[in-house]
Amino acid sequence: MWLSSHEHIMKKYLSMLTAALALSACAVGTPINWDKARQVKVGMSESEVTALMGRPYMVSSRADGQRWIWTLGTAFGGAESMSIVMRDGKVADVPTIPSSFK
Q1: Which of 37, 26, 23 has the alpha carbon at shortest distance from 73?
Q2: Smallest Cα–Cα separation from 27: which of 78, 83, 101?
Q3: Continuous H helices in 26-91
Q4: Looking at the whole model, is its pTM more than 0.90?
Q5: What DSSP state is assigned to residue 3?
Q6: Strands 90-93 and 27-29, sheet pairing
Q7: CATH topology for 27-93?
Q8: Model confidence at 85, in pLDDT bands (50, 70, 90)?
Q9: Which of 6, 60, 93, 97 could bond 85 through an S-S bridge, CB–CB 3.0 to 4.6 Å?
Q10: C-alpha–C-alpha distance, residues 73 and 29, integer Å
Q11: Whole-number Å distance between alpha carbons of 80 and 3
């Protein structure tokens, strides 16, 4: 069975829309809730941070402790990231988060 020109175009657009929706759903990392991130304070325990922020996407060891990193990248190149320094099981350093981050 042959498709009419209109049916062929509609199938093509539907395929493109499906692919775009699938790609937009592809995100790698841990979403960041900036309101919760602002609540992280020096001295908080690992369990307090995890309860507030969720598990970090990555933890890297450094000479001054561990850097806990939350990051989210999307299929279209958007990305956001936040990290804190943990030393001896406690938050040792937190970033200043601009109020414009929602």
Answers
A1: 26
A2: 78
A3: 34-37, 46-53
A4: no
A5: P
A6: unpaired
A7: Beta-lactamase Inhibitory Protein; Chain:B, domain 1 (3.30.1450)
A8: very high
A9: 93
A10: 6
A11: 45
Structure tokens at 56: 């970090």
Locate 75 and state its tokens: 């299929």
Q: How would DSSP label each residue in 32-94?
A: --HHHHTT--TT-BHHHHHHHH-S-SEEEEETTEEEEEEEEEETTS-EEEEEEEEETTEEEE-
| Paired sense of beta strands 58-62 and 27-29, if any | unpaired
Tens of pLDDT, residues 2-41: 556 767 676 766 666 565 545 455 667 778 999 999 999 9
Token digits for 81?
Answer: 């990231």
